[in-house]
Design goal:
It is built from 7 helices and 6 strands; from the N terminus they run αβαβαβαβαβαβα. By secondary structure, it is an alpha/beta fold.
Length: 230
């Protein structure tokens, strides 16, 4: 659909324009900072509930800071407040975050399963998938700083100890088979911070592969349904 019309001095108007676009089809949204997830989640308020899967270095669960409630530190908190968001899997969380201790307490109390990269590696991909409710509708949000800065330096908040490419790809592959993906966003790529362009290429590769996995799984489910009625 191209770009949403962004008014740089008006976050609420910008978010309204993003929300309008997301309502039109299966959304694949490229940010922008992580606040663009807020209008994306709003756009599902008239649909069935879903589970939110976040891949990120940071929890993004700040309630309010300096009067800001709809910035890049708030999206998962705003999502958790929605009655149609059944739960959150927050994967890759590590190191210093804008979210203080009470944010972690609140996140768990509001239905979040918080998993660090080290915990993920101990669990393995299958172990991590087992922690995500099966057979659900999933919205996936990917912050590029969830990856290690050795392969994704082009972001404003790089955090060492992050994911490698195949760890995330195999998780997304398993997720696409586990339920129904209803939308996705990928945010926080800052090309000016990476003269090699490798961060942008990584983001594009992850999205293209995930979209392909989604449609392959969707076709498999359709074939199974057809076979049931033969």
């Amino acid at each position: 659909m191209g770009d949403a019309d962004i008014v740089h001095t008006d976050t609420e108007k910008s978010h309204a324009n993003i929300e309008h676009g997301v309502r039109k089809a299966l959304p694949v949204v490229l940010g922008g900072d992580h606040s663009v997830n807020i209008p994306c989640i709003r756009a599902f308020d008239d649909q069935e509930p879903f589970h939110l899967v976040q891949i990120d270095a940071h929890l993004d669960f700040v309630n309010e800071r300096h009067g800001v409630r709809h910035g890049h530190g708030n999206p998962m908190r705003r999502a958790a407040e929605k009655d149609y968001v059944k739960g959150l899997s927050q994967i890759g969380i590590r190191n210093v975050s804008s979210t203080a201790k009470e944010g972690y307490v609140d996140a768990r109390a509001m239905g979040s399963d918080i998993v660090s990269v080290r915990q993920f590696r101990k669990l393995g991909v299958e172990g991590m998938l087992d922690r995500i409710p099966e057979g659900e509708r999933y919205y996936v949000t990917i912050d590029i700083d969830g990856f290690d800065p050795s392969i994704a330096p082009g972001t404003g908040t790089p955090s060492h100890g992050g994911f490698l490419y195949y760890e995330v790809l195999e998780l997304l592959q398993g997720l696409s088979k586990r339920g129904t993906v209803i939308g996705m966003d990928l945010v926080e790529v800052a090309p000016d911070y990476d003269s090699s362009g490798s961060t942008s290429f990584l983001a594009a590769q992850i999205l293209l592969n995930f979209i392909g996995l989604y449609f392959m799984s969707a076709k498999s489910r359709i074939r199974c349904e057809i076979n049931q009625y033969r």
